[in-house]
Amino acid sequence: MPIVTVDGARIPYRVEGSGPVLVLVHGTGAGSVTWESALGYFTDRYTVVLPDLSGSEAAEDDGGPLTAGLLAAQLAAVLADLGRGPVDVLGYSLGAPVAVLTAAEHPGLVRRLIALSGFCGQQDPYVHNGLSVWRTLADRPDAFARWAMVTAFSRPYLNSLTPQAVEALATAMRPTPNLLRQIDLDITLDIRAALPRVQAPALVIGCALDALVPVANARELAAGIAGSRYAELDSGHVARVERPAELAALVDGFLAETPVGDAA
């Protein structure tokens, strides 16, 4: 597995599939493994690159506070290490503002940009308070995991599962030092100043049933990126689980309709 070193942090990344490069940037959680259930919707036609940035379980660093700039620098190092020229980047949740900031600060590395379930930062009191409540549950692992479940997934999706499947989700995301670092960043980040500097063609995807980061935040992100396209999925925050086929169709459509030079 390739590894890039950025300011002492060791950032691994995986490569799956074949075709034009599509980089999938993880959000708050264990890291690139969170994309696993959706990979099959992309790897038959893209070379999918899956970095593990600081805060993921696979990355190695000093355990200090995370910043959007730090993660953007790590993502940029991965993109440069690929040696494939500018490539397409899809950032999910926390990965969305990280991808946006990377596109703004390293325009030569990001060919086209897709932001899924994203947000600009702490200006939304609803998001700030919801994340803050989640953070305070760190010493109550069961409550922490159930709060993550009910805010991440939509009511229709959860109600479609068996009781056993719901219980499995309710115990899946337990607090770890790295996860708490990511939540601390979610609470404090603000990338609004970077939005006007994004030059790459962009697609912003909001989730209409998102209880964690309500869809108004994705709409605000789209409004701040000049010329961006906007689309919505009838999903909770974790559209890569709830609506993977529809997500893949939106990605395919955007990339097919927005040609930029030769395929990487």
UniProtKB/TrEMBL annotation:
Give start and end of each AB hydrolase-1 domain. 22-249
In terms of SUPFAM superfamilies, this protein maps to: alpha/beta-Hydrolases
**Gene Ontology CC terms, in alphabetical order:** membrane
Name of this protein: Pimeloyl-ACP methyl ester carboxylesterase
Against InterPro entries, the record matches this protein to: AB_hydrolase_1, AB_hydrolase_fold, AB_hydrolase_sf
Pfam families per record? Abhydrolase_6 (PF12697)
Q: Name one GO molecular function term.
A: hydrolase activity
Q: Does the keyword DNA repair apply?
A: no
Say yes or no: keyword Aminoacyl-tRNA synthetase present: no
Lineage top rank: taxon: Bacteria
Mind listing the UniProt keywords for this protein, alphabetically? Hydrolase
